[in-house]
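Shape matters. Shown next:

___
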Amino acid sequence: MNKQDQPLIFEMSTPGRIGFSLPELDVPEMETEELIPEQFIRKEEPDLPEVSELQLMRHYTALSKRNHGVDSGFYPLGSCTMKYNPKINEDVARYPGFAFIHPLQEEDQVQGAMEMMYNLQENLAYITGMDEVTLQPAAGAHGEWTGLMMIRAFHEANGDFNRTKVIVPDSAHGTNPASATVAGFESVTVKSHEDGLVDLEDLKRVVDENTAALMLTNPNTLGLFEEHIVEMAKIVHEAGGKLYYDGANMNAIMGFARPGDMGFDVVHLNLHKTFTGPHGGGGPGSGPVGVKADLIPYLPKPVLVKKDDKFHFDYDRPQSIGRVKPFYGNFGINVRAYTYIRTMGPEGLKQVSENAVLNANYMMRRLQDAFVLPYQQHCKHEFVISGKKQKKLGVRTLDMAKRILDFGYHPPTIYFPLNVEECMMIEPTETESKETLDEFCDVLIQIAKEAEENPEIVQEAPHTTVVSRLDETTAARKPILRYQKEQ
């Protein structure tokens, strides 16, 4: 059998084979019905695979080798900051004082953990230029919703119930208009200028007395810094609105610029991106939110505070939007982020952004002749190229992304942002070497050449992966989520 044709674990099953060894029961047995209502009790034993421990280990180890991650290869996923996760973070997160505490313990018993969280809040507030930070939100989009709910509470507390619109650029992350809608607002699009930045005249047109906020990431999703941000903040503030900062692209500006200094009132951060918490596969995430002083009363409660050299959770917040997550955030990710900040220090974090921007610009200039470069100015941490040239030859950006898999790399983000035709968005991060950047650029240049000379090899890719082209539409709309055993 070819190694690519790995059997399912059900197909490896042999009756009577056991892969575990449990100790004898040393507590009194109880009738199952005393613990679980009868309607929830199985009438038959579950049909589980019967394999040995060694078979089980080899099976899941083989499956893990089919995954791609930052520890196994280059992962230039634009807008996701898939940077290396330092292993010292894992060591610290496993300290007994962090790993073995329980969220229901008394505050006096977990002062060390609370001090760590408080210090992380203070560090993030300083890095972003905010006045106070909450660690509760579980991820970036959750942070967006939390920030918008605070903005909504602020307006309503001031008797301003007509601020129903949130302005979002046409190049924004898809979570921005989604979060605005879930928070009860109407999403209004502001157009980009031909230079890729927000069109100030269009912003003036859409801002009015009903504007609750402008949501923006800076640098934007095209990897370009919104150089008119101070003027944009003035336009929105004079109309009575607030500025919300999507922190997904914070990796580009640490130590160089702070959202609070640009005029933003609320910011969320992705600790699983900029601050090296591992992410992917649905989690774990962490999306702390920082606010300026006039929004502090609306922070989710409880609020972690320090009083008389002790730390405690303050529930007496009558204007709070309420709790947004059980307990107080994804603690393990917070530990990793704090470890990263303390390891790097102020100058180290500044160098992170400096190197991320340098890497992105180096790659962009190497690739500008092989592809269409829609924006000629220097980028920040990420950049976009277009496959319009290859599309005329019958090769789509999707085809090229599939072909990249044959060379052992994860493809970059494709077809996003939506305002760039045949878009490919690349973010190398600061952690990759020049050798890796050159190797990846060489691959893309080779694929561009294949599109001209041998388009079929690109159109039919991938050729070396476990499975080839999938019916992606059916897989997304009608996924088979469980094993169907043949009768």
Notes: The first helix runs from residue 32 to 35. The first strand starts at residue 132 and ends at 134. Residues 1-66 form one domain. The mean pLDDT is 94.
